[in-house]
Amino acid sequence: MKNQYLTKLLFTSLMSVMITFFSFGQLPRPITFGKVDLADLQMKTYAKDTSAVAVVLCDYGEYFYNFIDGGSIPKVVYRRHIRIKILKQAGFNFANRRIAYYMVSDPDKSETVDNFHASTWNLENGNQVSYSLDGSDLFDDKGTDNIYYKTFTFPQVRVGSVLEYTYEIESGVWFDMRTWYFQDDIPKAWCELRAEIPGYFEFNMTLRSQIPLKIREMKQGEQNFIRGNIRDPFLAYRFVMADVPALKEEAYLTTIENFRAKLDFELSATQFPGQQKQDYTQTWESLNATLLDSDYFGKQLKKYSQAEKIAATLKATSKDSLSLLKAAYKYIQNSMQWDGERSWSTSKQNLNKVAEKRLGNSAEINLMLVRLLRECGFDANPFLLSTREHGAPSNFVLLKKFNSLIVHVNLNGKDVFLDATNKLTSVGQLPFECLNEKGRLIVKGEGRWIDIPAKEVSKKVLEATLEVLPEQVLKGDIHITHSGYESINFRAKVVAKGKESFISEYKKARANEQVSKIEVLKLDTLEASPELKVQTQISDAYSIAGDRIYLSAMLGMGEKANPFQSSTRTYPVDFGVPQEENYTITFKLPANYVVEEAPKNELVNLPNDGGRFEFKVFTFNGEVRIESKRVLKKNIYTNYEYLALREFYNKIVAKHAEQIVLKKK
């Protein structure tokens, strides 16, 4: 029964997608190498995006399988043809290209790059002229994790050039088909993938996109693969997007990769002729059990033998469960050094060896903490997550979607998260990069998803009292308090430089100030809010015109520019955590001056109680006090809330730019 070999399609996306059966036969390719339209060479701008420095005229790919060595070894072939138009000088960097491929010692599992051709096309005296490259012009460059690159540079590139290149990659990693990316950092006029998959394989295909497919087709066919003259079925897919906008970085994103339009492939099963069906789809339950039984995960918990002795000491000196939790966390935090690697698994060495070296990756350090907390009597377990830079967590059972391990503790029915890799975070306070929606608890029985909270406010409070002196001088004190995630950022800056260097650089960065004294306080106690106290004298602090003084109400310490410049936004705005910023600036006026004009009070509220901006001015007894408060109550604002958020910041920037006018009596 041939139909038992047909590929199954699981197709999910942000929009409703229907795959229909369609026989497109021997459909011609959208472009042919070496045949460039005159209109493309004459193009001056791309009408869909006139700001584009370059545009991909066509990105065409083919995925298909070959069977070698008598049909016993499958190879997947990736064929690619890309054509790029250079529109501005800033687009010249697209003349430097690289082709990634995978290489290990086993040639049957490695990838090879073949059939490479490239050409630069220019209009010269009205004629089409090409400058060509071939395989001898490729250079090898080693990446990381067995990834290598073939690099090359197009010759004779100028504004108006059309660049095209084509290549094939034959891969022994037949079970892990490459993700196809529809979207790039420059717009694409046409992007098409055709994939022919033998019925021996079942793949789940997942489209992640906010851009609709222009064409989505599937056909059924038969051909010889591995059984001599017997023709077996295959399914052929065609996916096309047109007028794909450039993917542009914007302020306050987790990672731009969360929003790149792409098609993922996941092998779910194989069934070769005469063999039993092999199911590769995991459930969360099976993944949970596999990890707990793994030499690089669950079994490592038994190999940190020092934990029992350390726990006995900690329990003898701790008065209650919370103090014991803090002591255990602090012990691992201070005794171990993080090597900078985020990982959900340990390396080949066991945790006793890691403890001896006092150096480990995120999984090793936090599994040590899990074991120590268990010895202390806590319900502690490993917790898998994807960091913000790595991308959004996936509901699909894919271990590669995680890249780190932290610790979850059930403390009196409440979720407490710990990550001992960072020496500047306190109990329940994760490093900022770990605040990424949710993670997976790995525990005996049945693991589960748990939301990662982002409730702690990042808060900065500034209080300044400054006397307005003659000759454009302000003199006084500035006191800044940092709490929540703002405290982590401040501590990190001071620790990275050292307190003395931090103070020295603070002074150097303020050329118009004479700083007489600086104090950095409460830096060593993580539960406290660190403070910065400065005694200063500011020169050229205001301007004089006749009998009037013009003084910046915020002294340039407020919002100077709106971080949200675009009139529209496709992506949500992700601040990571709620935020609060309070400024109180008091000016002591000269005895012979009065306030002639001051900024008006203002109150701006975001919709749905999303936040507020308050600006107040008080004048009394020869003083002017400015109070500015910005509150963002949510860590994420949707793209539908963007315009209100943009206008919110417009008003803050405008208000913070206003002046106080003093007039001589």
UniProtKB/TrEMBL annotation:
This is DUF3857 domain-containing protein. The keyword Membrane applies. It comes from Arcicella rigui. The chain crosses the membrane at residues 9-27. Residues 76-204 form the DUF3857 domain. InterPro entries: DUF3857. It holds the Pfam family DUF3857. The lineage of its organism: Bacteria, Pseudomonadati, Bacteroidota, Cytophagia, Cytophagales. The keyword Transmembrane helix applies. Keywords: Membrane, Transmembrane, Transmembrane helix. It comes from the Bacteria.
